[in-house]
Amino acid sequence: xxxxxxxxxxxxxxxxxxxxxxxxxxxxxxxxxxxxxxxxxxxxxxxxxxxxxxxxxxxxxxxxxxxxxxxxxxxxxxxxxxxxxxxxxxxxxxxxxxxxxxxxxxxxxxxxxxxxxxxxxxxxxxxxxxxxxxxxxxxxxxxxxxxxxxxxxxxxxxxxxxxxxxxxxxxxxxxxxxxxxxxxxxxxxxxxxxxxxxxxxxxxxxxxxxxxxxxxxxxxxxxxxxxxxxxxxxxxxxxxxxxxxxx
Length: 247
Known about the structure:
- By secondary structure, the chain is mainly alpha-helical.
- The chain folds into 2 domains: 8-165, dinb family like domain (Four Helix Bundle (Hemerythrin (Met), subunit A)), CATH 1.20.120.450; 184-243, no CATH class.
- It contains 8 helices and 4 strands.
- The strands form 2 sheets. A two-stranded antiparallel ribbon has the order 1-2.
- It starts with 7 loop residues before the first helix and ends with a helix.
């Protein structure tokens, strides 16, 4: 048998810390849904063969209590699994919340007191595979996976009933801007700032010598109006639009 490495205890501590976080997050998700549903909605079933939010909460309370208190801690198992699904309620929502809080607190207390050596202890428990033997670590992992799956089911049933009025725990991130879509207001020449057809570019400017010196000066553009006239016209057009409040 391989000896426990020096990293073993640290791994176990991190594993248990993450397990407690996942447990708390699952509880928060369930409470978030309950806080948005009317009592009648808590017990609404999408169809007779499917479960309500209330049934799923009872089922998770039964599973968590059985796995953590009975399988791991060795307390008597008094779970009545069939009733978790046959219950039609309505059990008042405050009572459901009290049951949920009690089970979550008890499960968290078990996780808080587990040690690295206890994680490797063997346990016998029921699963979809039938009677299963595995370590306490495996029991914790399988139980939290089962919990997470049903929490997502609760969220789905809640959103199915509430539609767009469902309140997310945190606002969803805004969609990334579509590079192919540009708002008209963002276009530089929107709103008539520039003419529909840009004026013809001025013809090539030829530098001619000044009459009294060797310096060069702009001459009239070949085949077009003087450059100075074009710039003056452009400046006047801009000023006219500025006076009209277009720029």
